[in-house]
Write a structure and sequence with these properties.
heterodimer, A: 681 residues, 14-stranded mixed sheet, 40 strands, elongated, B: 279 residues, Elongation Factor Tu (Ef-tu), domain 3, 6-stranded antiparallel beta barrel, 4-stranded antiparallel sheet, 2 helices
Chain lengths: 681, 279
């Protein structure tokens, strides 16, 4: 068989064509497959890089948090050292860490070399850092790179996040029936018991009890001196003791980095502990930065100082930034602008003087002219004939012998004259005048008269609402001669729109309802009108404002308190239903075994953290807020007892859950670290 | 002739095997690509939720908030970064931002990687009521120092006053995005609404793009379910992603509309209520 060359060529062409087609199909498939392979590989690699990056940022957060907690604010050098060199964790072999850094940033997110303090809307301070990580890997189709950022934020998480926060022991010993619906924390020991049966003291399931030292149901020191009758029962834990009671690490300091600055052994009076919160700094001594940042005195928008009985008729003059006059000084700071008229309004809300009228001689000196003889005695000598003689002989021989003669005599002669003289004559008269004396109330616990200054919140609130730049913090003190001077907050039913913190270094009395929505009719508050569990603590339509009272000690006076009865027997000091919606931050007295002045030595427990001075039998004290016990009382140190001091109220006490999301003006945190926004660039 | 026939037969066989192999390979690639793309859509949704400004919100196909614990869609706040510092519209700090204000000067640092806001973006402000403001207009205003500043107006007034002279009024920017499963025949498609604004209509096709189609529900499970998971709230996305009905792959190459299916369960969010700071 023969084949032509043409036929042989056709077969070859056909085979070549088929091979070409096959190669084209294979190439197309290869392209599609390799493209998909690159996509798949890239996607998987970026996922891996993202996951690793997030892990590195969490590592950075942990290192930063520990450093801040232990050593206070960190600058950029310190924070970057936390995640560089040997401190940088290993990553999978295929990845490289291009950058891992932590830097302070300012309010605009720009990197700063030092920590930048900013204020949030409640004037608690905030420090923001930014952790950034860039990771790189190589894979099919080239290099992948991922950059992630996370904000690290120190914010004020105040100790008002629970029902009770106690720096000292948390003690409850045979309290009247109590139900606690909020967290309890103590940096020391917890001694919790009840006297009648376990059901008398109940911790609801949402109440966690955390302690640092020890936990037991024993009587605190001195408590049995007060009452040793009956049995100590453990309280009832709704969800069980094991799930509600826990030992935890100490939550120390009040404000970031303060705990590490505290030192009671050196000579510096500005670093002695949590009480610095309410103390002004002592001049001439270093005020450590972290403590200075926490002082309410430094952070307040208004400083009100009283140095004696206030005379509101005196003019206020502006000097060194403060309006001063009549024993009061009002100073705006931290961005608050204050006019003379506003200062006068604020002064009108501060009163502390009893005014009595006395007859006072008001002299009126008048000059009077008169002729006055002005003597001029002159010694004058003159010859004076002195007649003298005598008879001699007798009979006819008797005759007169004349011995008369001239003698020189000296005499004084007034050669004076009349002259015109001017004299001052008092033609005054008695007129009635006001005498200012600082008023006092008798404190049965302290056993003495307490000089007191009233702050009328109802008067000051409208002024504060219009005060430009006011941050909601008033620091008020009485620098008069008494160490036991106190501030009394009155008429506090309605607070400024943005909330109010009132702080003082001395004692603080709060009289009547506080933050309930009415200043005129306590009975319009449901918890006063018909006290019962869950009765509203405000009048209808009123939303409680952020509120805190901060002092060396806080005494709660009822709506019915009368100053004139303060020194009378306890039965004469009858209370009435009263409601407070505020955080109370104050000092405590530790229980001691042996009391004095006939008192037991027991601290009274946290149920007596707000100090009472009236007979509350049949009356209720309703409270919604948080109790914070941060330091030992230094000025109001009268020991607790019942007796002639008070008869306890029916306590309807609740934790205000709004405090979970509210930051109270000027109340710094015991530490609050937040992992902020995570973003991928 | 015999040799020609032999070569042709062998060639035909080789060609047949080759084309069959190539076709099967292509179909395999198509399956993988289609399946991967479908999965990628859901993964993308999960990632967006993880980096979002806040927790996802369950919504109905018309955008209304879902009343129960299940839904066909979710609304996400896709974080666009910050911080942005808010001041009064005149840029001064000596006047307060009044309640109800709708015009603000917004300052930001481009050096810190913060971009200018755009119409339809939203801001979350750090104030007591946590207001969320939607940007209506943006006017370029230049620079102040190293910072950029713009004047924005918002569709709603700020519900509380703010005091930029006393404290920093900070906002973070985000864009609302919605993802909604919509039934089409036997299957469901996933719509993405890239910019949800107060004026947007969910039924308008210009408001969305179809991310992928051919999804089925996983058994009787709803698309999105809010549950309590280990003591915290969580939102699950459960779906069957089908590698089909993607015209660019399935129809042109294989002509088949059903290839493989892949069950997917993604935990979109897991959080405590309220989100706790650590301390």
């Amino acid at each position: 068989m023969k084949t032509s060359n043409n036929e042989s060529g056709s077969i070859l062409l056909a085979v070549l064509f088929m091979i070409l087609v096959a190669m084209a199909v294979v190439s197309a498939a290869h392209l599609a497959t390799s493209g998909q392979s690159i996509l798949t590989s890239r996607s998987a690699d970026i996922d891996a890089l993202s996951t690793t990056g997030e892990g590195l940022l969490d590592y950075a957060f942990g290192k930063w948090k520990v450093a801040m907690d232990n050593d206070g604010l960190q600058n950029a050098t310190a924070t970057n050292a936390l995640v560089s060199g040997s401190n940088r964790p290993a990553v999978p072999a295929r990845m490289q860490v291009v950058d891992l850094s932590i830097n302070p940033v300012d309010a605009n997110g720009d990197i700063s070399t030092e920590a930048v303090k900013t204020y949030d809307y409640k004037m608690s301070f905030v420090y923001t850092y930014r952790a950034s990580v860039t990771l790189r890997s190589t894979g099919v189709g080239g290099e992948r790179k991922v950059t992630l950022r996370r904000s690290l934020v120190y914010t004020s998480v105040p100790p008002t996040r629970g029902m009770f926060f106690s720096e000292g022991n948390f003690e409850l010993y045979k309290p009247a029936t109590m139900v606690i619906g909020g967290d309890v924390h103590t940096n020391a020991d917890a001694h919790i018991s009840t006297g009648t049966s376990s059901s008398n003291l109940t911790f609801l399931a949402n109440s966690k009890v955390t302690y640092v030292g020890s936990y037991d149901n024993a009587a605190p020191a001195g408590a049995t001196n007060w009452s040793s009758s009956g049995t100590n029962y453990p309280p009832t834990y709704a969800a069980g003791l094991s799930s509600q009671v826990k030992k935890v690490p100490e939550i120390s300091g009040i404000g970031l980095g303060t705990a590490s600055e505290y030192d009671t052994t050196d000579s510096n009076p500005n670093n002695d502990g949590n009480r610095e919160l309410i103390e002004p700094p002592v001049a001439g001594h270093e005020d450590p930065t972290s403590i200075a940042a926490s002082r309410i005195y430094n952070n307040a928008g208004l400083l009100i100082n009283v140095s004696g009985p206030i005379n509101s008729s005196m003019p206020l003059t502006l000097s060194n930034g403060a309006y001063t006059g009549g024993n009061i000084s009002i100073k705006a700071q931290n961005g608050t602008s204050l006019s003379a008229a506003q200062a006068a309004t604020i002064r009108s809300a501060v009163t502390n003087a009893n005014v009595t009228q006395v007859q006072t001689w008001v002299p009126k000196l008048v000059q009077v002219s008169q002729q006055v003889w002005v003597p001029n005695w002159v010694q004058v000598s003159q010859q004076v004939w002195v007649s003298s003689g005598y008879y001699t002989g007798s009979g006819k021989k008797r005759h007169w012998v004349d011995t008369s003669r001239w003698e020189t005599q000296t005499s004084m002669v007034d050669q004076g004259s009349y002259q015109t003289q001017t004299t001052t004559v008092d033609q005054g008269q008695y007129v009635p005048t006001n005498q200012y004396v600082q008023k006092t109330i008798y404190d049965k616990r302290e056993l003495q008269n307490i000089p007191i200054t009233d702050l009328n919140v109802g008067t000051i609130t409208p002024a504060l609402n219009t005060l430009n730049g006011f941050n909601g913090i008033i620091y008020m003190d009485d620098s008069g001669p008494s160490d036991q001077a106190a501030i009394r907050v009155t008429n506090g039913g309605v607070l400024p729109t943005d909330g109010l913190t009132i702080a003082t270094e001395g004692g603080l009395y709060v009289k009547g309802d506080y933050n309930t929505g009415t200043t005129t009719n306590p009975n319009s508050v449901p918890s006063n009108n018909n006290p019962s569990p869950n009765a509203s603590t405000t009048v209808s339509g009123y939303t409680t404002k952020s509120a805190a009272l901060v002092a060396d000690a806080i005494m709660v006076l009822s709506n019915n308190w009368s100053d004139s009865n303060s020194s009378s027997g306890v039965s004469s000091r009858a209370a009435s239903n009263t409601t407070l919606n505020t955080a109370l931050i104050s000092g405590y007295l530790s229980s001691v075994s042996g009391g004095s002045n006939g008192r037991s030595g027991y601290s009274g427990g946290m149920n007596n953290f707000p100090r009472f001075l009236e007979t509350w039998s049949g009356d209720s004290m309703t409270f919604s807020g948080a109790f914070v016990s941060l330091y030992q009382s230094k000025r109001f140190t009268g020991a607790w007892d019942t007796g002639d001091i008070y008869v306890p109220p029916t306590r309807y006490w609740y934790f205000d859950t709004l405090l979970l999301t509210r930051v109270l003006p000027g109340i710094p945190a015991t530490g609050g670290f937040v992992r902020g926004q995570l973003s991928r660039l | 002739m015999v040799s020609i026939a032999l070569v042709s037969s062998v060639g035909l066989m080789i060609f047949s095997v080759l084309t069959s192999t190539l076709k099967l390979s292509s179909q395999n690639v198509v399956t993988n690509v289609s399946n991967y793309r479908a999965r990628q859509v859901l993964d993308r949704l999960g990632e967006l939720a993880r980096y979002a400004q806040d927790t996802p919100v369950l919504i109905n196909p018309d955008g209304a908030l879902a009343t129960g614990t299940t839904s066909d869609g979710v609304l996400l706040k896709n974080s666009l970064g910050g911080p942005y510092v808010f001041k009064n519209s005149n840029g001064q700090t000596d006047t307060e931002i009044q309640t109800g204000a709708t015009s603000f000067m917004v300052e930001f640092s481009a050096a810190a990687g913060v971009a200018a806001p755009k119409q339809g973006d939203c801001f979350s402000l750090a104030l007591s009521t946590g207001p969320e403001l939607e940007v209506a207009t943006v006017t370029a205003a230049g620079n102040v120092g190293s910072l950029s500043r713009v004047v924005i107006t918002t569709t709603q007034g700020i519900p509380e006053g703010a005091k930029p002279g006393s404290y920093t009024v900070t906002g973070y920017r985000y864009r609302k995005e919605a993802y909604v499963f919509v039934q089409s025949g036997n299957y469901w498609s996933l719509r993405r609404y890239p910019k949800v604004t107060s004026a947007m209509n969910y039924t308008n096709s210009a408001s969305y793009i179809v991310m992928s189609a051919g999804f089925q529900k996983l058994g009787t499970q709803p698309w999105f379910t809010k549950v309590t998971d280990n003591g915290t709230q969580a939102i699950w996305l459960r779906a069957v992603a089908r590698s089909s009905n993607r015209s660019e792959y399935a129809e042109k190459i294989s002509g088949r509309n059903t290839l493989t299916t892949m069950p997917v369960q993604i935990k979109l969010w897991n959080y405590n209520a309220p989100p706790p700071p650590t301390s």
